[in-house]
């Protein structure tokens, strides 16, 4: 890759159906370069398009999630920050996957780190996590979704309390706000994220995708659209092999063996 090989994003597969996407630019506190953002989008797209992958864990190496963007590389005079709009958007502002994503954070989780965490579906924080949406303190404003995802997660008052002050808050506060769903000791955070992905993958993948898609329909278009999506759920899920397996496993009192079809 370019930019003096500063930082990389990798994808590995565990337990057959789980993609683990890892950001690694530890020397710069996992600050994102444009190439890293493009790599991340490419890996998310590969995950989205591979039917054998049912859930993803999005995590970062080292002690910190990210210090944010490598600002000169994104906004300097020679910046080249474009990402192919046909790829899955790490901020879920464009193309979005219907597959479940578990985000795992630790240490400094600043600006885009929060926004990409909130673009996922479930978040696990190490007890070392410290959060800050710092844009207004830097003379700019959030561009990756914080301006509305803070609202959908925690309401107007709490959103403005943190967005407008650019303060720092800890993992317990993030749990209280609903930004993260669990706080675990540092060192256990990635394993816990993978464990949650395993729990998700024990269920029917067509069902989990349909559930996420229908929930997104509500966020995008409101209650009536979400109600209309019920017929789509019926046609895509209730005629599947996994549906029949779920019923049969219940009758036979055994764990279901889903195939994603």
From TrEMBL:
It comes from the Bacteria. InterPro entries: ClpP/crotonase-like_dom_sf, Enoyl-CoA_hydra/iso, Enoyl-CoA_hydra_C. Transmembrane segments: none annotated. Pfam families: ECH_1. CDD domains: crotonase-like (cd06558). Belongs to the enoyl-CoA hydratase/isomerase family. This is Crotonase/enoyl-CoA hydratase family protein. It comes from Gordonia hydrophobica.
């Amino acid at each position: 890759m370019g930019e003096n090989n500063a930082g990389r994003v990798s994808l590995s597969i565990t337990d057959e159906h789980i993609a683990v996407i890892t950001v690694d630019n530890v020397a710069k506190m996992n600050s994102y370069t444009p190439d890293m953002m493009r790599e991340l989008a490419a890996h998310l797209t590969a995950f989205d398009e591979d039917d054998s992958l049912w859930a993803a864990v999005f995590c970062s190496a080292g002690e910190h999630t990210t210090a944010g963007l490598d600002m000169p590389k994104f906004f300097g005079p020679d910046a080249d920050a474009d990402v192919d709009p046909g790829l899955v958007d790490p901020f879920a502002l464009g193309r979005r996957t219907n597959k479940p994503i578990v985000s795992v954070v630790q240490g400094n989780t600043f600006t885009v780190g929060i926004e990409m965490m909130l673009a996922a579906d479930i978040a696990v924080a190490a007890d070392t996590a410290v959060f800050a949406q710092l844009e207004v303190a830097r003379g700019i404003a959030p561009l990756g979704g914080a301006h509305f995802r803070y609202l959908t997660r925690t309401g107007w008052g709490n959103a403005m309390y943190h967005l407008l002050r650019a303060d720092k808050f800890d993992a317990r506060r993030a749990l209280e706000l609903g930004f993260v769903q669990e706080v675990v000791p540092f060192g256990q955070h990635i394993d816990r994220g993978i464990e949650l992905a395993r729990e998700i993958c024990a269920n029917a993948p067509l069902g989990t995708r349909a559930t996420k898609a229908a929930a997104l329909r509500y966020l995008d278009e409101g209650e009536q659209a979400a109600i209309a999506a019920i017929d789509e759920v019926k046609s895509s899920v209730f005629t599947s092999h996994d549906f029949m397996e779920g019923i049969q496993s219940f009758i036979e009192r055994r764990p279901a063996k889903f195939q994603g079809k």
